[in-house]
Amino acid sequence: MGPRAFSTDQSGGSVRVFAPASVSNLGPGFDIFGLALERPGDEVVVRAVAGTGIVSLSVTGDGGRVPTDPLRNAAALAVQGVLDRLGSDAGVAIEVRKGIPLASGLGGSAASAVAGAVAADALLGGGLDRIALLECALIGESKGSGADHADNAAPSLAGGFVLVLPGQPTRMVKLPTPPEMVVAVAHPALEVETLGARVILGETIPLAAGIRQWGNAAGLVAAFFEGDWELIARCVRDAVAEPARAGLVPGFRRVKASALAAGAVAAGLSGSGPSVFALCRGSLAAETAAAAMAEAFQLEAGVESDIVISGANAAGARILETE
Ligand code: HSE
Asked: Domains plus CATH for the chain?
């Protein structure tokens, strides 16, 4: 399918930006931990055109499913956020090239929003800092998920393993990752809408679950600083969201168990799923874990999986081209 657009226009300068997919939550860090992958990712081109504000918007690579209404599109909302923040009435045309599968649990709407914000800022010479760019991206991301959570947008923007603190002012902390860490992801041919996967969580958790969760979250931060794999194995556990969501992903428990049996150090649901991630020591271990997960999805749920083997993407969003 070719690009769908609500308008076309003459072009001026342009900036093309790549923003990577991300694995969020990582066990105990619901809405606060995220890890950028090297691929897949979304690209957004923002072009200066005659007119005011968002003059046109087109999307490719989405099978015609991402809204092309600028008021409902993550990248366009982020671009508008940058225009507003800079007080600019420039006219821009936006082209979104989706590389991240929809509803995959890999932070696709966050990546589009991040790429849009970075491209618009670069085009307009805004010089916004990372926090401002993140806040603009979150305007777009929150429309997609129906909730304000920055655990995909922050790593997609800044790269690496990121802790993003809840509440205001916006604050993110980039944490180290062990150099030999390789992430395996199995993305089954299934979809889980984040909004629906959040509604089922309810609003309160038992104290005992809270204690396990904050203990493991604190432990995981320490584990990454220390490069302590035993502690990583112990702390990548989710006492809150994953148990409630497991039923949304057919075969999930067996897929996770198969990754661990194949040598992964830790595994869990990527964001709200259906993708499953595994943290591994080295590429060989990651390939073995990925193959085991794909086989388990096939056996348990009868679905094929796409596999991603990736180190942590230290750089995050990057400008690919400026004209
Ligand atoms: N932290 C979010 C959630 C990520 O689990 O709902 C969604 O991708």
From this structure: 14-174+313-322 (3.30.230.10), 181-311 (3.30.70.890)
